[in-house]
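Good morning N.,

You mentioned wanting to compare the apo and holo forms, so I went ahead and generated the holo version with iron/sulfur cluster. This is what I fed in:
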Amino acid sequence: MAQGVVFDIQTYSLHDGPGIRTLVFLKGCPLSCIWCQNPESQRHYPEVLLYSERCAGCGQCLPACPNQAVQIFEGKSHTRRHLCGGCGKCVEVCLNEARVMAGRTMSAEQVFQEVIKDEIFYKNSGGGVTLSGGEPLAQPEFSAAILQLCKQAGVHTAIETTGMVDWDTFKKVLKYTDLVLYDLKHMNSAAHRRCTGVPNELILENVKRIHNELHIPIIARIPVVPGYNADPHNIEATATFIAAELGLDTKVNILAYHRLGEGKYSRLEKDGQVVNITPPGAEEMSKLQKIMEAAGLTVTIGG
Ligand code: SF4
Ligand code: SF4
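and this is what came out, ligand included:
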């Protein structure tokens, strides 16, 4: 049975697809978005999160580490990340819960058993399971196995994806997918690369193929990040692409950048990577919504 690395499972969600849903967050992502709000999802392997404010500096984690990755500096524990193998031994000995693992290896069957516990809620609400991340396509066999088990049990399946994967791999997961929540971050490929580390050609090609060849419903999701992709010109170009290539039945969610993920960078001891982005206000979101609606699309703020 396929195995993979999961960093969170959230139940009773009213976001990321219809009805009441269980969200399964998988680790690993081929993008590195400047504004990433789940930096603990980017790497493919389990990582230690350090809650420094809980650390008493007792030093129990030092001898526990087989790689000499832990140091005490100015009364607090730190991790030399390049030495850390993610074994979790320091987490086991920390009584203050200052060290917490992000990511655990699970089998597809174990994930399915978690998902199916809420079957009654899915039936009553039209909900189901959504695989998110990170990027579910970064663990394609694992994602396909989870979705296959869910579909066999009659559970509605969705994936939230960046679409950055070769088509043959994508199809193996889409075979068991009822709905695709597809991120579109920038229409200009050079700007897309500056924001995310990768160009957008494959992403745009894949979403067209999902629509034209597989006819799976798509919800286009646009993160609105001032200073990066929120200018009216890009939003208008995104609307034009969706209307022309995916059709006016494709619903659109525009998602305002928020700052909730910023604290996570210090948990990963990556302070230097936080960028200073001011979230868009309600008025700006409404203006962008109207720009997209002018193309004939149905656009929701949030989703
Ligand atoms: S991380 Fe935990 S075990 Fe390590 S020094 Fe801090 S409180 Fe002690
Ligand atoms: S997870 Fe393992 S290797 Fe990494 S700091 Fe903790 S004990 Fe050391």
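The pocket of iron/sulfur cluster (ligand 1) is lined by residues 55-61, 77, 93-94, 96, 98-99 (CB under 6 Å).

Happy to go through it together on a call whenever suits you.

Best,
F.
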